[in-house]
Design a protein that fits this description.
The chain has 402 residues and is α+β, with helices and mostly antiparallel strands. The protein has 13 helices and 14 strands.
């Protein structure tokens, strides 16, 4: 019985003697393992980054808006576009629900404000002071909208909107006037760039915020697009949804609302991300399958070229298990080497993608273990058939081969 150390040494010598063949087999495994590691790691990074965006604002944030269709969240009548949440209903929430620690209703419209006779084409949000608190907004300059501003024509620019004004030669936008629907709005503040995603409205960075009462001047009705709120810890969200439904039906019997929570969205997103990661892993596995078939072909060629060597070994007393172990170890070593290189390339590719897209980079221990385990499994699975073929060669016929 040949020792395992001797088998490993012989396997390394055989692979070194056939450098070109070894290199070709390595390339297939490197590409397969590298693609799987990169794709799975990217999927996990996207999930973690998205979850962090929600957690930055707090998992106790909810949004309330008019419901559409017959969903679990609530119906609403699509034939009644006037069936909207009103300012009266929104401002009464804080008194009716003491466990809503902060309430921030807001309006949203898309317009083309003018600066120096040039159109800016941006969203305009009607907000209250609580809007900045709930969305964790920070000021770069000036101040935010105050609840005391009433019907004042003041505006606060998001970071993207401020950048647009800078391109038009505004310089420092504080104190400048932007015209919206024929009214001049004095810029009293500029926001630092807010992280996008999570529960934050997408209009913050590219938009301008004005007092919510001022926004009603441009609407036929004093209606609200959405309400953001922070709920007390450990509050039963299902019970809250039921009570909110009852509250709004007091004003509009046919009204149905949709309540979304950060925690609910995180759970839904985690499920979707897991499916996304599995899909990416399945796509990468195709490369692994191709690489494994390449290893099997290379090992079958090696068996064919080394028939005489196998015959000599058998004649000198080597058992079938020794020959089988020899070729199986060669296959596993080949795949392990390709797997380690593939892991390095896969992690490197994931790092580059994370830096380019601003994702949180991390190396999944499970992903690394998966890479090593899968490469070893490929070596055993695709190497077993050639090893079995080699061990079953008739030594007399093998020695006759020239």
């Amino acid at each position: 019985m040949i020792s395992f150390n001797e088998i490993v040494r012989e396997a390394l010598k055989s692979q070194a003697a056939a450098k070109q063949r070894t290199l070709l087999a390595l390339i297939g495994i490197v590409i397969g393992i590298g693609s799987v590691i990169a794709l799975v790691t990217v999927g996990e990074m996207v999930q973690l980054t998205s979850e962090q965006q929600f957690r930055q604002m707090g998992t106790n944030i909810i949004t309330i808006q008019r419901g559409w269709g017959d969903s679990k969240e609530g119906g609403g009548n699509p034939d009644r576009p006037d069936q909207m949440i009103t300012w009266t209903e929104a401002k009464g929430l804080a008194k009716k629900f003491p466990k809503l620690e902060a309430v921030a209703p807001y309006t949203s419209s898309w317009g083309q404000p003018l600066f120096a006779d040039k159109s800016l084409d941006m969203p305009v949000l009607g907000v209250t002071r609580s809007f900045a608190d709930l969305n964790k907004l920070t000021l770069a300059k000036g101040r935010f909208i105050s609840d005391l501003d009433g019907y004042s024509f003041f505006g606060v620019l998001g970071a993207g909107a401020a950048a647009k004004l800078a391109k038009l030669g505004a310089g420092d936008p504080l104190g400048k006037t932007v015209f919206f629907k024929g009214r001049g709005f004095k810029i009293i503040g500029v926001l630092a760039r807010a992280e996008e995603g999570g529960m934050r409205p997408f209009e913050i960075n590219p938009g301008m915020m004005i007092p919510i009462h001022t926004s009603f001047l441009f609407k036929k009705e004093r209606v609200i697009n959405e309400i953001m709120a922070r709920i007390a810890p450990n509050m039963d969200r299902r019970r809250l949804k039921s009570r909110l439904d009852q509250y709004f039906k007091m004003y509009q019997p046919d009204m149905s609302i949709q309540v979304r929570s950060a925690e609910q969205l995180i759970n839904e997103m985690a499920k979707q991300s897991r499916l996304f990661t599995l899909l990416l892993g399945a796509i990468g596995s195709i490369s692994l399958l191709v690489g494994g078939i390449g290893v099997m072909n290379v090992m079958l060629v090696a068996v064919s070229e080394r028939r005489k060597e196998i015959g000599v070994r058998r004649a000198l007393g080597a058992m079938q298990s020794d020959i089988r172990a020899q070729f199986l170890v060669e296959s596993v070593i080949l795949c392990l080497a390709g797997g380690l290189i593939g892991i390095a390339l896969g992690v490197g590719a994931a790092y580059v993608l994370a830096k380019v897209n601003g994702w949180i980079f991390f190396v999944s221990g499970m992903g690394l273990a998966l890479g090593v385990g899968v490469s070893s499994a490929i070596g055993v699975f695709f190497g077993y058939f050639p090893a079995r073929q080699a061990s079953r060669l008739n030594p007399i016929l093998a020695l006759r081969d020239e």
